[in-house]
Amino acid sequence: MRVALCAATFRRPEGLDRLLDAIAGLQAPRDESGPLAIEIVIVDNSPEAAARQQVCAAAAAMPWPLHYLCEPQRGITYARNAALNKALALKCDFVAFIDDDEVPAPRWLAALLAAQQRSGATAVLGPVQPLLPQQTPSWLVAGRFFESPPFADGAELQDAHTANVLIDLKRLRSLGLAFDHRFALTGGEDTMLFRDLLDAGGRIVFAADAVVYETVPPSRARLGWLLRRWYRTGNVEAALFLRGRRRGVWRRPVNVLRGLARVAVGGALFACNLLVLGFGRKDRIVRPLYTLCRGCGILSSSFGRDYVEYREVHGT
């Protein structure tokens, strides 16, 4: 069996260094069915090939082959599709995705593969645990806004993302699936891919011990970024609804109604919390803004305005 461990990177040299060091320290997974080969694939999405020298220098300390690719076409879908194509060229059976602002726990890859072998699932998702900066406001920590939803080990899921996932590459390609370039700069491309995978009869399971740690930069550990993130979540949700395979002219007015409902509910809850709690429990006051901002994002997308998530780079 052959596995490609893939990461896209864009002008985050410090994050990439942390990732490469952690990959070099991974415990080698064992495959009871036969030999296991691991290939590391780093796709640099900067047109000037900014990470080439850094990745090539890391190859000497890497226990597995390290491949560098430059994908000059800006957009996360182009970088991740380049990784898929490289994994296919390397004749890999599975591909594991991780981000360049994350580091895996030593047993990360082994845990993903073990969960896949136990379940036979098409994809295996692991948890992402945030590493918040020291100056993070206490209300933001108390609100646990950066934490992933908890799932039981082995639970069947209806969604996934590429921050921490293992995918059956042969199954993916047999279905003709890849990342949709309409989401190149907005995000949501991974959600669309996994929805298509589920529609085609695939299965996604959760591996609770396949942990990666995400470094949250100070520019994200604040209210303004959270509000934009929640807005973007609704914006992408609406775009996915409009662009899904079961399309229809009725979807746009339904999106508008969904957006209006969320704005109304989120706004009302925010006002009630503010009146009852004052500013004493900021984490609880802020929480309804998630619903409000998602509603605004849904309305915006319904009228053709997409939020460009990847216009700005956070972290180094």
SSE layout and pairing:
Elements: E1 2-9, H1 13-24, E2 37-44, H2 52-58, E3 66-70, H3 76-89, E4 94-98, E5 102-104, H4 108-119, E6 123-125, E7 128-131, H5 138-143, E8 156-157, E9 164-168, H6 169-174, H7 189-199, E10 204-206, E11 212-215, H8 223-243, H9 251-277, H10 282-286, H11 288-302
Parallel strand pairs: 1-2, 1-4, 2-3, 6-10, 7-11
Antiparallel strand pairs: 4-9, 5-11, 6-9, 8-10
Helix pairs in contact: 8-9, 8-11, 9-11
Shape: globular
Which strand order do you get reading across the main beta sheet?
3-2-1-4-9-6-10-8
Beta-strand content: 15-25%
Q: Which fold name is given in CATH as the topology of the largest domain?
A: Spore Coat Polysaccharide Biosynthesis Protein SpsA, Chain A
> What's the CATH class of the largest domain, please?
Alpha Beta
The CATH homologous superfamily of the largest domain is called: Spore Coat Polysaccharide Biosynthesis Protein SpsA, Chain A
> What is the typical, i.e. mean, pLDDT?
92
Low-confidence stretches: none
Binned, the helix content reads: 40-55%
The CATH architecture term of the largest domain is: Alpha-Beta Complex
Count of individual beta strands: 11
Which structural category do the helix and sheet elements fall into?
Answer: alpha/beta
Number of domains: 2
Largest β sheet strand count, sense and barrel closure = 8 strands, mixed
Q: Helix count?
A: 11
Radius of gyration: 20 Å
How far apart lie the N and C ends?
35 Å
Report the oligomer: single chain
- Secondary-structure element series: EHEHEHEEHEEHEEHHEEHHHH
